[in-house]
Automatic annotation (TrEMBL):
This is DNA-binding beta-propeller fold protein YncE. PANTHER family: BLL1368 PROTEIN (PTHR10680:SF38), PEPTIDYL-GLYCINE ALPHA-AMIDATING MONOOXYGENASE (PTHR10680). It comes from Bradyrhizobium japonicum. It comes from the Bacteria. GO terms for molecular function: DNA binding. Signal peptide: none annotated.
């Protein structure tokens, strides 16, 4: 029987062996996922075929991005099915059509800004859009900033600096917005999500999270909910401590936990376990797609244990099908 995660109204059936790839293909790390208006799934990965497109049953449709991307990291899709592909390897955000035509590039490929300079970009991580189509970029590993751009890519403003105080960041790893224009930032190594208005004014923060890595706003404009992917321990000293993830948490618009999926007994490749949730998307039926960086994160989670071949092949993409009574 497939594993079931969650309780009550938030129960999900794990769809084992979801991705059906051409013979010999591997995904390796799946940095992020997105779902378009036709429920096609875009799998932004670090394999030889950076953008793999599947239908909702996991059947292979096509791929693109070969030779274009350096290191997949973030993926966001807008209401017109344009894809915003964040590449932390060459420090750019590219707006693309669903067949891979590049419409806009923000940042200069392979030319990062100076480390912690605050100037865009140094290993940017993700994007989100305001209700007006303005582009927010989380930046990232070599910066501690959020940048706001016009829809055509002109810098409007930036905020944030390194640290632990409100408005400061320690790995600004993911970003999301809602229909009212609030901006939600996964401040990963500060173990929190910070909430800002559209101009960067700090409003509040959500705590009781463990290394929040993936962030997805869903549930509709009137009552948005959020799915948060949390990484497990990153240190040898707490590697085997329970109840730290990796896991998914579902919260309401005030950050109150509604449900939690998995993570009680650490990472694993078995059905119902997570490796390293890094990107999230929902389809029209409320099913959740989880991109994981299980290859990159393997040693942190498992030490010197041998990595099964399935991790590099397809295991870093999971589908959780919502259970309907």
């Amino acid at each position: 029987m497939p594993a079931i995660l969650g309780t009550g109204e938030h129960r999900y059936r794990v769809v084992d062996n979801f991705a059906k790839l051409p013979d010999g293909w591997t995904l390796t790390d799946v940095a992020s996922v997105a779902v378009d208006s036709k429920d096609r799934v875009y799998v932004f990965n670090r394999g030889a075929h950076p953008m793999v497109v599947l239908d909702r049953e996991g059947n292979f449709l096509r791929s693109w991005g070969e030779g274009l991307f350096s290191r997949a990291h973030g993926l966001h899709i807008d209401a017109d099915d344009n894809l915003y592909c964040t590449d932390d390897g060459d420090h750019t955000v590219r707006k693309c059509t669903t067949d891979g035509k590049v419409l806009l590039t923000i940042g200069i490929p392979e030319k990062p800004s100076p480390f912690m300079s605050g100037e865009p970009f140094h290993r940017c991580t993700h994007t989100a859009l305001s209700p007006k189509g303005e582009i927010y970029v989380s930046d990232g590993y070599g910066n501690a900033r959020v940048h706001k751009f016009t829809p055509d890519g002109k810098l409007m403003k930036s905020w944030g600096e390194p640290g632990t105080d409100p408005g400061q960041f320690n790995i600004v790893h993911n970003i999301a917005t809602d229909a009212d224009g609030w901006v939600y930032v996964a401040d990963r190594e500060n173990h929190r999500v910070q909430v800002f208005n559209g101009e960067g004014k700090y409003e509040t923060q959500w705590n009781n999270l463990h290394r929040p890595c993936a962030l997805c706003c869903c549930g509709g404009a009137k009552s948005p909910t959020f799915v948060i992917g949390e990484l497990g321990p990153g240190l040898d000293i707490n590697r085997n401590v329970p109840n730290l993830g990796p896991r998914l948490s579902i919260v309401d618009a005030k950050g109150n936990r509604i449900a939690r999926l998995g993570g009680e007994n650490g990472p694993g490749v078995a059905s119902g376990k997570f490796l390293a949730p890094h990107g999230l998307a929902l389809d029209s039926r409320g099913d959740i797609y989880v991109g994981e960086v299980g290859v990159t994160n393997w040693k942190a989670s498992f030490g010197d244990q041998e990595m099964p071949a399935v991790v590099r092949a397809t295991r870093c993409l999971q589908k959780l099908e919502r259970v309907r009574e």
